[in-house]
Specification:
2 copies of one chain form a homodimer. Chain A has 343 residues and is an all-alpha fold. The first copy, chain A, has a single domain, classed as Farnesyl Diphosphate Synthase, CATH 1.10.600. The first copy, chain A, is 74% helix and 1% strand. Chain A has a two-stranded antiparallel sheet. In chain A, a hairpin with a 2-residue loop joins strand 1 and strand 2. In chain A, helix 1 crosses helix 3, helix 3 packs antiparallel against helix 4 and helix 4 packs antiparallel against helix 6. The longest helix of chain A is centred in the middle third of the chain and has 28 residues. The two termini of chain A are 17 Å apart. At the A-B interface, helix 4, helix 6 and helix 7 of A face helix 4, helix 6 and helix 7 of B.
């Protein structure tokens, strides 16, 4: 399978349409004192980002016949983006990362104590913001349901990061363990996003469940593709160093698959992850990933999730629940993007 | 004013009655994987603590005619205790503290990354737990209101800790700044606790507001007394080193008041806080606090808040909203305890 360019026209329209709206809500809401703490809390969000998760909230809602974004779903979308950024701020401390989105991480600028606290404040806001949907006409039951979806998402992110950290210390990780970890760490929040769109649209429980599954599948495809790009992505496009995940010693599906195929390959990756990260060794590691069939396997796995996500959308369509084709197309684009993207 | 022993009989009955109940809910609910992360998340809670905040939730609810604790309010109580402990776990990292409740802090046992993550997971649970009150018969509107009270409390804790950290770098702090900081950092969560009791009891908005004010006043008295004990507490009773807040350079009302009275006293404290913390210097600092009238002033301030808290209770009583005298007495006891306690 060749990596190729894909034209995400319908998705691009949504990004164009909603990104500034989402940002304006975030920055309008997240104001307060002490000033330094609030600056630290918006530092990373100001650094950019695709806003993929809140766009999924808004587009899912509209596709399913929900009201205009500004009415109600925007609050759930804003909350999800703040929650996502909270998790990045704390992850960057835990992983000791200096840069994200091309700017220094929060703890590099403000120090670890303020970065921990800024994350905590962002976390609070993620639960505070959905309440504002009440003034846009959401019922108490709807808001509570939305909050609960965000809560469950946040719990899973923490558990996922916990597994990710544990994986650093062991090679006893099977594909099932890896898939559980990426579900918790990445896919659960994308699942929460599409589910929130379903809730905001006022759809039946069955449709909310299906659109939630769509999000989960997109999230799994997205993370596996992330792992592929982490080794084989073009540094000029991804903005990350070549082979960055190998240098960082991440036990992704690529490494786990190769290591499970031959004892000597496992030993080779152990050597790299124990610190032998000369350019030559790393390059050889990347070659092993290709030779072992791990790259092909991961691509097929990700494509399969992406295809299944589209299938869930078709099911929803066949049930007559899609009210706006333009947004339906954008949801399909997101599923395709999760796999075909090159950054 | 002399510090004296006070017999908190009615409060003691409540502690005896509820502490194990609260703990059993916490440990039943906070289960999951990865195991290490969950162990880290319950480490501090297992270390003990008075459980004052959840007891305030339960006792406020019963005093105002709410159902038995086990029915509904227990979930709000449990959530508040988990939230309180979350803030301690992260505070201990920020303040680089090695011990709390006589045991090593979470980051000392599990390392900083896991401690940050354990705090995050506890934070998630603080918002997940109130949802469980639904199965005990709470309406969606009640649960959402409860969640919102917890959200606002959590936001204020973060802002309060932000101000506390800022205060380390400046002497430009007036009494108003100090009072705002301790409201945000300590009193807001005690206010949230009594407010949650009011909500669980199904009382009118007016009563919920009054019982919330009671909590706020108890919280202010509690924190000022904490600051007094931080300098003048008996190490054998408090379990903290003598003069600990002076050694740690905390700008409490005691220091701020004395420093505002005489330029040389301000210089003296600056010297201590810049690192001259010989036993003799610290002892002289404590003497200055007495000589300046700061100790008397702080005691009067704390007693005043404690008295006002009791007054709010009397107002609630005069409105006919108190349904159970035994629990009313315990609330009074808590207000008195907040000031008269010696540990």
């Amino acid at each position: 399978m060749e990596l190729k360019e894909y034209n995400h026209a319908a998705l691009d329209v949504m990004v164009e349409k909603y990104r500034n709206l989402i940002d304006s809500y975030i920055f309008d809401i997240m104001k307060g004192e002490p000033e330094t703490l609030y600056k630290a809390s918006t530092h990373l969000i100001k650094g950019g980002g695709k806003r993929l998760r809140p766009i999924i909230v808004l587009v899912s809602s509209r596709a399913l016949g929900g009201p205009r974004a500004e009415a109600k779903a925007i609050y759930y979308a804003t909350a999800i983006e703040v929650l996502h950024n909270f998790s990045l701020v704390h992850d960057d401390i835990m992983d000791n990362d200096d840069y994200r989105r091309g700017i220094p991480t929060v703890h590099k600028v403000y120090g670890i104590p303020t970065a921990i606290l800024a994350g905590d404040l962002m976390f609070s806001y993620a639960f505070a913001i959905p309440y504002l949907a009440k003034k846009a006409g959401a019922s108490d039951s709807e808001v509570l349901r939305a909050v609960n979806v965000i809560v469950e998402g946040s719990k899973r992110i923490a558990e996922g990061q916990g597994f990710d950290m544990l994986f650093e210390e062991t090679w006893e990780i099977g594909e099932k363990d890896y898939l559980r970890m990426i579900y918790l760490k990445t896919a659960a929040l994308i699942e929460a996003s599409s589910r929130l769109g379903g809730i905001a649209s006022g759809s039946s429980d069955e449709i909310v469940e299906l659109i939630g599954q769509y999000g989960r599948l997109v999230g799994l495809s997205f993370q596996i593709k992330d792992d592929i790009l982490g080794v084989f992505g073009d540094p000029k496009v991804t903005g990350k160093p070549r082979y960055s995940d190998l240098i960082r010693g991440k036990k992704t599906i690529l490494v786990l698959y190769a290591a499970s195929r031959k004892k000597e390959w496992k030993e080779f990756f152990k050597k790299i992850f124990e610190g032998d990260s000369s350019e030559e060794t790393i390059k050889e590691g990347a070659d092993i990933i290709k030779e072992s069939g791990a790259l092909d396997y991961a691509q097929k796995l990700a494509k399969n999730y992406s295809d299944n996500a589209v299938e869930r959308l078709e099911t929803i369509h066949s049930m007559g629940a899609i009210k706006e084709e333009e947004y339906f197309d954008a949801l399909k684009d997101i599923a395709v993007f999760s796999f075909w993207r090159n950054k």
